[in-house]
């Protein structure tokens, strides 16, 4: 009975996260906003669904399965990396004028207060502070 409740709760939680993430992917306008749906909510939803599968096979069939845990690990490692790469390519294409973006629900991003620019592929401008982390 406890295993059934845990499985049902994980399925509902996972299904809710997947639904919210998918809705965000379809509904939000700009590419940067669309990245958050599949990389955050949907990844958590799939993780909950896969953990529910592990609990089901252990509770009902008495066998441990590592496939779901390996899939979850792969998803949690690759989703942020792929989102970072997509965001960098998108920022670079916006900067070069190769693509235009519709108006965002959140509005334009705020500019830094000191007049510097956000992280880009450009070389640092003269007079801007540089990082001393690698010196």
Approximate helicity band = 55-70%
What assembly state would you assign to the polypeptide chains in this entry?
single chain
What distance separates the N and C termini?
59 Å
Biggest β-sheet description: none
Shape: elongated
Note the run of SSEs as H and E: HHHH
Integer-rounded radius of gyration = 21 Å
Mean of all residue-level pLDDT scores: 80
Secondary-structure content class: mainly alpha
How many beta-strand elements? 0
Question: Could you say how many structural domains there are in total?
Answer: 1
Strand content: under 5%
Number of helices: 4
Poorly predicted regions are none
Helix-strand layout with pairing:
Layout: H1 2-27, H2 31-34, H3 36-61, H4 67-96
Helix pairs in contact: 1-3, 3-4
Descriptive account of the structure:
With 135 residues, the protein is mainly α. The chain has one domain. It has four helices and no strands. α1 packs antiparallel against α3. The longest helix is centred in the middle third of the chain and has 30 residues. The model has no long low-confidence stretch (mean pLDDT 80).
Label this structure with key terms:
135 residues, membrane, 64% helix, Multisubunit potassium/proton antiporter, PhaG subunit, 0% strand, 4 helices
